[in-house]
Write a structure and sequence with these properties.
By secondary structure, the protein is α/β, with parallel strands linked by helices. About 35% of the residues lie in helices and about 15% in strands. The strands form four sheets. The chain has an eight-stranded mixed β-sheet, with helices on both faces. Strand 2, helix 5 and strand 3 form a beta-alpha-beta unit. Helix 4 runs parallel beside helix 5, helix 4 crosses helix 9 and helix 11 packs parallel to helix 13. The protein is globular, with a radius of gyration of 24 Å. The structure holds pyridoxal-5'-phosphate. The site of pyridoxal-5'-phosphate has 13 residues, from helix 4.
Length: about 475
């Protein structure tokens, strides 16, 4: 088949046709259309191998799309009323690319404090100067939510000259910011609004109380299709508007992404888009109603439940400290959840109608798991996200800055030289360049004693941390 800009087939149909033709492969990948190997590979997996193709002329090129990939990305853009590009390295690479395309080394960027580690890693490696925007902290649960317009206004006044605002909405817990008001304000200042919407690819229906930021004036939005849609892990996409420099964005995307994009991931992205398109008004309404019923049943069963603006995220509070144990009991009876923290667990609900039997069965199992775990209906968590100044600038370390390893006790009041991340959700508790408070150490000690998983240097587990030596 000759390379064509006007392939009459969709991405998935073209792959199907390619596989049917049983072509000879003198190209990578090394499984040569699934013809190399032995019986060790499970048969279902073996059947998938032939679809794991490479950038042959008629299969287009992710980094310079002009055929079936371009067609599929255009269809995606039509759905989100934007320009869109597929990502094969998750929202992680989207966050890196949005920042690289809008902010230069040494320039300021306004960043939500409870951003995912992909944002902080990008900021560090790209050499940007972050101004931290404190989110609101939800009363009772202590969970950090979203940044308000007032906080952004204050940041722009106190720390002028920032080149972009980087927000997360919805958050992991489904809370959503007032993107319309924020984008109106920023567009007058010509500051692009970048939104990490890793958890919001499904928020497109006009009747939803709040939709994706791309419909509300954001300049660029990154979504992990794999988190909330039926796409393979790592499948994500980015939507962007005219105020984003497309040349810079494409340069960043092709620099940070693999040069061998997975056709399996891309096929799943096209499928996820078509699934979303296929949902009728009735389907949306049934999905939402069934989710509400599930939450009602959980509440009836005595659980203390938080639902964010995004109806697919359900948090069960497990005061005072039983989240991790509850998670273990759930796992032992076959229920795997998205996240277990010390005082809550988070469930991601599927974007489909959940039927009555499923609801009954799931709630019964959850009640059973909870009988082993006293879950006290308290008013306040003892682990609130630390509330500091509404806006502040992060200390940027020089490369040869002297650092000391000290005990947690000694570290209070010093600037941290490393980042400590509870995982999941991957939101740093202590950021490199941030001052360490007594509260942060208190909570960290509790987490270590309770066995919460932390991404940090091994010495953190023995209650030591690297800090900057300050000269007074
Ligand atoms: C808010 C947020 N942003 C970005 C990411 C990174 O997404 P991905 O795993 O698709 O790279 C995550 C992952 O958990 C996330 O929760």
């Amino acid at each position: 088949m000759a390379p064509s800009r006007k392939n009459p087939f969709t991405f998935l149909e073209t792959l199907e046709q390619h596989v049917r033709e049983r072509r000879v492969s003198f190209h990578v990948p090394g499984h040569h259309n699934g013809t190399v190997g032995n019986d060790a590979l499970p048969s279902a997996f073996a059947r998938v191998m032939p679809y794991d193709l490479t950038e042959l002329p008629h299969l287009d090129d992710l980094h310079d799309a002009s055929g079936i990939i371009e067609q599929a990305e255009t269809a995606l853009g039509n759905l989100y009323a934007s320009k869109s590009k597929w990502l094969v390295n998750g929202s992680t690479v989207g966050n890196w690319s949005m920042l690289a395309a809008t902010v230069k080394r040494g320039e300021r960027v306004y960043v939500q404090r409870n951003s995912h580690k992909s944002v902080w890693n990008a900021i560090e490696w790209l050499g940007l100067k972050p101004v931290l925007l404190m989110p609101m902290i939800e009363r009772g649960t202590g969970i950090p939510t979203v940044v308000t317009l007032e906080t952004i206004e204050q940041a722009v006044q106190e720390f002028p000259g920032g080149r972009a605002v980087m927000l997360t909405s919805p958050t992991y817990y489904g809370d959503m910011a007032d993107i319309r008001a924020i984008s109106d304000y920023l567009s007058h200042l010509n500051i692009p609004l970048l939104v990490d919407e890793a958890h919001g690819a499904h928020l497109i229906h006009p009747q939803l109380p709040q939709r994706s930021a791309i419909f509300e004036g954001a300049s660029a939005v990154v979504q992990s299709a794999h988190k909330t849609l039926p796409a393979l892990t790592m499948g994500a996409w980015i939507h962007y508007k005219e105020d984003i420099d497309e040349v810079q964005l494409k340069h960043a995307l092709s620099s940070f992404q693999t040069s061998s994009p997975s056709y399996l991931i891309m096929a799943s992205l096209d499928y996820a888009r078509s699934y979303l398109e296929s949902l009728t008004d009735e389907a949306w309404s049934s999905i939402q109603k069934s989710h509400v019923s599930f939450v009602l049943e959980l509440k009836r069963a005595g659980f203390s439940v938080k639902v964010g603006d995004d109806f697919t995220k359900v948090t069960i509070m497990t005061y005072p400290k039983n989240g991790l144990v509850f998670c273990e009991h759930l796992a032992s009876i076959g229920i795997d959840i998205e996240l277990a923290a010390v005082d809550h667990v988070l469930l991601c609900l599927p974007l489909r109608e959940i039927n009555k039997q499923e609801i009954e069965h799931w709630v019964t199992l959850m009640k059973k798991a909870a009988t082993h775990v006293p879950i006290i209906d308290e008013d306040e968590t003892i682990f609130p996200f630390p509330s500091t100044h509404r806006v502040s600038e992060l200390y940027t370390m020089a490369e040869d800055e002297p650092i000391h390893r000290v005990s947690f006790n000694e570290a209070v009041g010093s600037i941290s030289a490393e980042t400590v991340i509870p995982y999941p959700p991957g939101i740093p508790w202590i950021l490199k360049g941030e001052r360490i408070t007594e509260e942060k150490i208190r909570v960290l000690l509790e987490w270590i004693s309770l066995g919460r998983k932390l991404q940090a240097g091994k010495h953190v587990m023995i209650e030591q941390i690297d800090v900057i030596v300050e000269e007074f």
